[in-house]
Amino acid sequence: MSRNRKQAALTKKSRNLKDFTYDELLDLVSGLGEKPYRAAQLYGWFFKKGARAIDEMTDISKVFRNTLKQGSYYIGLPALTGTKHSGDGTVKLLFELEDRERIESVLIPEEKRLTLCVSTQAGCALGCSFCMTGMYGPGRNLILSEMTGEVHVATGLVKEGLLKDIKRITNVVLMGMGEPLANYEEVLKFINVLTDPKGLGFSSGKVTVSTAGLTPGIKRLGRDASVNLAVSLNATTDQVRSQIMPINKKYPLGGLLAALMAYPLRRGKRITIEYVLMKDLNDTPEDARRLARLLRGIPTKINLIALNPPPGSPFKRPETECIGAFRKILMEAHYDVIVRASRGSDIMAACGQLRGREQKALTGKGA
Ligand code: SAH
Ligand code: SF4
Question: Is residue 146 annotated as a catalytic residue, yes or no?
């Protein structure tokens, strides 16, 4: 079958069972004349036992398996096309999707944690001028099976010893390629599967959604989920923020900060403020003082990240002393501040360096 026909067949007729929410799966099994417990059985096979094909689900009757196959249902996962290991222990996973789009996820081992950073889009339309994903332009929304697929494949690799002694992913951050809240519906389904004990089973306190500040999406997320929220603030005035993050023209700082102030947090939880420091642009003592004023009253912890300058970027990373001085001002204003180490920059896996397209060079494939 030609590639186009195969794709048409896949998109028009076949359905990846892992794109069904639990409720949709219940409807599907009852529509096929099966008892509701079949949905739980299928879910268990997808998310606990890691089934990769219908015939692996051996305690499901052959008749029902055949019904599923004849109905053109299948179990699909993103294809892992490579892994890249950084000198600091970070590992980047490269994936090709059914339509040959490419995405990346990153495994970041820290002391007691292993964090998986997942992509939610195959690019990003928001075009922040300091971010490589944004520089490479928009990409389509990822669907449920693709996002759970990133977790599934990464979990399998970790179990098999990819990171030697570390055998379990403890945290998931939606902080890879793309803007999660610009893909709201599928991301919400993904969060539900991630935090469903019948699904991937992460506690919602171990899941973080990072956004460039889509104010309406933040309000919705506050109503729909109880995961952690991280906001990429990156500037303290509308003028500078709009210059580096065009989305600020649509959702300026005033409304964004009001949404953060109103965000329903579970007890003891705080919003993470991400602030990428860029030399002479947003790194002055005046910026630090303004940031302290802007965040007053919002329960936050602040992550300062020194810019990983994209190639040809006009922006530069500040000097270490300057980062220290910025941090000190915030600490003196009683904020919790950490300077986040840039992990995986030698393999282009650090914040803002994911772009998917890199794999063309690695594999020689692609347009
Ligand atoms: N779109 C979402 C999540 C993906 S970006 C968001 O913007 O929050 C993840 C993080 O990488 C953001 O905090 C962003 O500010 C940061 N980032 C982007 N480009 C960067 C760069 N060149 N150096 C350091 N951090 C960067
Ligand atoms: Fe998109 Fe986030 Fe990069 Fe901005 S920083 S371009 S929102 S991925």
Answer: no
Model confidence pTM above 0.90: yes
Residues contacting 90, CB < 8 A, separation 6+: 106, 107, 108, 109, 343, 344, 347, 349
Reduce the DSSP state of residue 151 to 3 states and report it: helix
Tell me the CA–centroid distance for residue 134 and ligand 2, in Å.
5
**For the chain, which domains are there?**
3-74 (1.10.150.530), 79-347 (3.20.20.70)
DSSP secondary structure, 82-132, as one string? EEEE-TTS-EEEEEE-TTS-EEEEEEEE-SS-EEEE--SBSS-TT--TT-H
Q: What angle, rounded to 10 degrees, do the helices at 37-47 and 22-31 form?
A: 130
Q: Which ligand is nearest to the CA of 352?
A: 1
Nearest CA to ligand 1 atom 4: 175
Q: Does the beta carbon of 131 lie inside 6 Å of ligand 2?
A: yes
* Amino acid letter for position 118: V
Residue from 34, 98, 101, 104 carrying the catalytic annotation: 104
pLDDT tier for residue 20 given thresholds of 50, 70 and 90: very high
CA distance 233 to 210: 11
- Give the C-alpha separation, 282 to 276, whole Å: 8
| Exposure string for 104-129, b = 16+ CB within 10 A, e = fewer | bbbbbbeeeebbbbbbbbbbbebbbe
Question: Other CB atoms closer than 10 Å to residue 267's CB: what's the count?
Answer: 4
Question: Is 124 labeled as catalytic in the residue annotation?
Answer: no
| pLDDT tens per residue across span 61-103 | 999 999 999 999 999 999 999 999 999 999 999 999 999 999 9
Please choose, from the candidates 83, 56, 20, 49, the residue with its C-alpha nearest in 3D space to the C-alpha of residue 156. 49
* CA dihedral over 109, 115, 81, 312, signed as positive or negative: negative
